[in-house]
Amino acid sequence: MTDLQKYVDLTVEIITSDGRVIVGTLKGFDQTTNVILAGCHERIFSENEGVERVALGLYIIRGDNICLIGELDQERDASIDLSEIRAAPITDISRR
Amino acid sequence: MLVELKNGETFNGHLVNCDNWMNLTLREVIQTSPEGDRFWRLPECYIRGNTIKYLRVPDEIIEMVKEDAIRQRQAASGGNRGRK
């Protein structure tokens, strides 16, 4: 199992099993991949409007619900204009 | 704190106790249905850890955790230094 230690204090993007995209600072984790995300916000993608940002604050996300954790390149992310992005939202994984 | 379960229900209340499996007891709880249309007030409730999707917690907690960790490390090393 790759260690999440190298991502601590970095900005990460987490995709949950219900298809939500949450961006925040990884503050902690444990063996079951429960994750502590500080100053996080959810990015809601839509095909018709730009990306909506919902501020969330300090979150503890349970590992069972996490699909993917990725390191976010802050520079590249800052250069993206979220209001211009049109994308279909990700569906949740439990439904087929 | 706010607890959202895997089924979308949310519980807003004060954390009384927790264990290694993330089972929680909350006091003075407002339970909201997944649709957000129905509300219940519960004086106390017990939530089984494996039903939790996520927890939303006040931002100040992260500072308190760091202070706790530092104090524990100081207590451990301070105690060892005291003994011969």
From TrEMBL, chain A:
SUPFAM superfamilies: Sm-like ribonucleoproteins (SSF50182). Gene3D superfamilies: 2.30.30.100. One of its GO terms (cellular component) is U4/U6 x U5 tri-snRNP complex. It comes from the Eukaryota. The keyword Acetylation applies. GO terms for biological process: mRNA splicing, via spliceosome. Pfam families: LSM (PF01423). Residues 1-75 form the Sm domain. GO terms for molecular function: mRNA binding. Transmembrane segments: none annotated. It is found in: Nucleus. PROSITE patterns: SM. CDD domains: LSm8. Keywords: Acetylation, mRNA processing, mRNA splicing, Nucleus, Ribonucleoprotein, RNA-binding, Spliceosome. Belongs to the snRNP Sm proteins family. PANTHER family: LSM1 (PTHR15588), U6 SNRNA-ASSOCIATED SM-LIKE PROTEIN LSM8 (PTHR15588:SF9). LSm subunits form a heteromer with a doughnut shape. Plays role in pre-mRNA splicing as component of the U4/U6-U5 tri-snRNP complex that is involved in spliceosome assembly, and as component of the precatalytic spliceosome (spliceosome B complex). The heptameric LSM2-8 complex binds specifically to the 3'-terminal U-tract of U6 snRNA. This is LSM2-LSM8 complex subunit LSM8. It comes from Funneliformis mosseae. The gene is LSM8.
UniProtKB/TrEMBL annotation, chain B:
GO terms for biological process: mRNA splicing, via spliceosome; nuclear-transcribed mRNA catabolic process. Residues 1-61 form the Sm domain. Pfam families: LSM. Keywords: mRNA processing, mRNA splicing, Nucleus, Ribonucleoprotein, RNA-binding, Spliceosome. CDD domains: LSm4. PROSITE patterns: SM. Coiled coil: none annotated. It comes from the Eukaryota. InterPro entries: Lsm4, LSm4/Sm_D1/D3, LSM_dom_sf, Sm, Sm_dom_euk/arc. GO terms for molecular function: RNA binding. GO terms for cellular component: spliceosomal complex; spliceosomal snRNP complex. PANTHER family: SMALL NUCLEAR RIBONUCLEOPROTEIN SM. Belongs to the snRNP Sm proteins family. LSm subunits form a heteromer with a doughnut shape. This is LSM complex subunit LSM4. The gene is LSM4.
